[in-house]
Each structure stands twice: as C-alpha cells, then as structure tokens.
Amino acid sequence: MDKMEIKNILRGHFQATGGFIAEDGDNLFEKGVLDSFGVVEFLNFVESRFGTQIPIEDITEANFSTLEAVAELIQKQEVRG
Fold it and tell me: What's this model's pTM, rounded to 2 decimal places?
C-alpha cells in the first residue's frame, strides 16, 4: 500500500471519529487530536485496519505526531511483515 493511500485512510479515521480534517504536516498532538489515551485507541485502529502489530519500542510521540510519520511506520511494518 502506498503512503498516500495510508494517509487517506488515517484522514478518514480522524474525520469519522472526531470531525478533524488532518492535513500533511499537522502535529496531531499539538492540534489536540491525540493525547496519551487517544494514542492507545488510534494504535488499536492502525493495528486492526492494516493487519500489523506495532512493536512497543516504535510507539513514540515522534512516530505518531503526523500523518506522514504514522504512514512511514505502517510501511515499515509491512516491509518487516
């Protein structure tokens, strides 16, 4: 799956769950879209939607701060798969 397709799925998730339209470069923490509890919920969505398991060491603020970072993390997991 290419990065744009992943980002569009993530955008759809945020729009459906909170009405937030995420743009490239938006810091999801600074925009108030994600917090410590939100990351857990979002992680569950990512793992179930993309059929992957994110290693605990990859669950960092940097990896979940932007659509781009999350998409790269998902692609990395697909390669490891």
Answer: 0.91
